[in-house]
Amino acid sequence: MTMPASMMATSWMGSDLTLNDLVNQTRLTSDYAVATSFDGQRDGVAVFEYTLTPKPAAAVVWGKIVMVIRQADLMPLWLRYYDEDGKPVREMTFSEYRTVGGKLIPTHLVVRPLDRTGEQTTVTYQDIVFDVPIGEETFSLKNLKQ
Fold first, then answer.
1. What is the dihedral of CA 47, 53, 55, 58, to 10 degrees?
2. Which CATH number characterizes residue 77's domain?
3. Which pTM does this prediction carry?
4. Whole-number mean pLDDT of the chain?
């Protein structure tokens, strides 16, 4: 099913995550111009901070995204999403980094809407498998119609 960008920005099952967050339809590097806005130490941790602004032809929801990652292992610490007026709308934080399936990943994510105090959506990965082969029959017309 093809979904318009506006539909991809809607809440997933009443959570603070969007459909776009789950399927990663928006590729940050293709839809946003990335600029380094900070390179240095914060709270004793070497970090990169990037500011992503939408490219002119990109059909995206966010007016800007600010992302902070650790320099040592390039793991994300947090992302802050802004509306078209430059107001922060939500924040996603990452923690509990573990090596799972041979890959270092954050296993605890928290999404907080910044306009609703006390609300959040938490995702904790207990187990995850990477590089699982997917048979061609998965994408048959019959299976896609189900």
1. 100
2. 2.50.20.10
3. 0.80
4. 86
CA distances from 20 to 41, 52, 63 (A): 31, 17, 15
For 47-77, the pLDDT digits (tens) are 999 999 999 988 888 899 999 999 999 999 9
Q: How far apart are CA 120 and CA 122, in angstroms?
A: 6
- Are 47 and 36 within 8 A, CB to CB? no
Number of independent structural domains in the chain: 1
Residues of the domain holding 13: 5-145
User: Does residue 52 contact residue 61 with C-beta atoms inside 8 Å?
Assistant: no
CA-based radius of gyration for the chain: 17
For residue 5, report the phi and psi dihedrals to the nearest 5 degrees: -55, -35
For every residue of 54-74, DSSP letters joined together read E-TT---S-SEEEEEEETTT-
Report how far residue 44's alpha carbon sits from residue 24's, in angstroms, rounded to the nearest whole number. Answer: 31
Residues 101/126, Cβ–Cβ less than 8 Å: no
